[in-house]
Design brief:
The complex is a heterodimer.
Chain A (H helix, E strand, L loop, with lengths): L2 H31 L4 H8 L4 H28 L4 H27 L4
Chain B lengths: L13 E14 L2 E12 L4 H11 L19 E4 L2 E4 L5 H4 L4 E5 L6 E3 L2 E2 L2 H9 L22 H9 L7 H5 L1 H5 L6 H11 L7 H8 L13 H5 L6 H16 L6
Parallel strand pairs in B: 1-5
Antiparallel strand pairs in B: 1-2, 3-4, 3-5, 6-7
Classes of the chains: A mainly alpha, B alpha+beta.
Chain lengths: ~110, ~250
């Protein structure tokens, strides 16, 4: 994949994430300020497929966005080889995807 | 740049007092500042001072200049740690306590004293896709370019660059990332991307967005602040990024 494609993917994923971050922050503020228990929150997130779908899309956007940024930072600020930097970026992508989808699974209530 | 008062007489004689000048002397293997004293004159530019030192005190001083009037772009140096055209920098504007410090341009290898090797700087113009490629032959009619079109106005905003290297020297990203093409080269690419006569649009866009291209810019704006002719390479780079995104999703308009 060319640098230009990576750049565009990072920007497009940022475009997707921007409103999602706002909604996610809104959810956090709402949940904490209204004193909802963890159980009550999980009941609500598991009550419809929309919440898991929203967070799954969020996780996918993060999986695209984060490793490209990590790669840029490492390449600019560390003496690591290109291969090492790419390896770390792919590992970061895998971590975002696996941990993120695991969390989506947890709030979906489908395991119960 | 300062406006010149054309009605004032130009005194050629010293106006009294001396100026302390610290000039960087050395070569690629290293060097240090040496201090000289020069008579203070009215309307004295930093280039005048360097020339006076070279003519009267240090004939072996190496520096570069040609036109003396801000057209050629060869006399850029660090003046008190800021890259400037020395010919258009009046001593009265930059002397701090009767002292000025002049060094070779930052981010470029020194050849000797105040002269730098600008090979990298010019090579990067080519790497950024800065070579014009015509789309017509001499037998075809001249291209009709509407000067008021949006693309032409954007090209015009950057077209006055004279390759002096001031922005390249001011850029911190160039300082820490040797692959970065720098503001001048990317500004050049932007003017071509807005030139309807330039045939290799895709090639220039790809090169300007390749590794070391626009993606490496941190939008710090030092180039824009330092440019002696008021060009904003920062805006050019932002324009290329936007164009690249629109091109990718098939929405690049001309």
């Amino acid at each position: 994949m060319s640098e230009r494609q990576l750049f565009v993917l990072q920007r497009l994923s940022a475009l997707v994430m921007a409103p999602m971050v706002l909604l996610h922050l809104g959810v956090i503020l709402y949940a904490t300020r209204t004193g909802l228990s963890a159980e009550a929150i999980l009941t609500r997130t598991g009550s419809t497929w929309l919440w898991p779908a929203f967070y799954a899309a969020f996780v996918l956007a993060v999986t695209v966005h984060v490793p490209i940024g990590v790669r840029n930072v490492l390449r600019e600020w560390t003496p690591l080889s290109r291969g090492a930097v790419n390896g770390i970026a792919i590992a970061a992508a895998a971590a975002c995807l696996i941990l993120g989808l695991r969390a989506v699974w947890a709030i979906s209530g489908w395991a119960a | 740049m300062t406006a010149t008062d054309t009605t004032a007489p130009v005194p050629a004689t010293p106006r009294g007092g001396t100026l302390t000048v610290r000039l960087w002397r050395g070569d690629a293997s290293g060097g240090d500042y040496q201090t000289y004293s020069v008579p203070r004159r009215d309307n004295q530019t930093v280039l005048d001072v360097v020339t006076e030192v070279q003519r009267r005190q240090a004939p072996d001083l190496a520096y570069r200049f040609a036109c003396r009037v801000g057209v050629c772009g060869s006399c850029a140096m660090m003046v008190n740690d800021t890259p400037r055209w020395t010919c258009r920098t009046h001593v009265s504007k930059v002397a701090e306590g009767g002292t000025i410090t002049v060094a070779p341009l930052r981010n470029l290898p020194v050849i000797r004293d105040l002269a730098t090797d600008m090979t990298d700087f010019f090579d990067k113009w080519q790497k950024a896709g800065g070579r014009f490629q015509g789309s017509a032959t001499r037998d075809e009619p001249m291209a009709q370019v509407d000067p008021s079109s949006k693309a032409r106005r954007m090209a015009d905003a950057g077209i006055e660059c004279i390759n002096c290297g001031v922005c390249y020297s001011a850029c911190d990203v160039v300082a820490w990332d040797k692959d970065y093409l720098g503001p001048a080269a990317l500004n050049r690419a932007w003017t071509l991307l807005n030139d309807v006569r330039h045939a290799d649009q895709k090639g220039t866009l790809d090169k300007a967005m390749a590794q070391g291209g626009c993606g490496s810019c941190h939008t710090q704006g030092n180039c824009m602040r330092a440019c002696p002719v008021g060009i904003s390479p920062t805006r050019a780079i932002a324009g290329i990024k936007r164009m690249s995104l629109l091109d990718f999703i098939g929405m690049r308009g001309r």
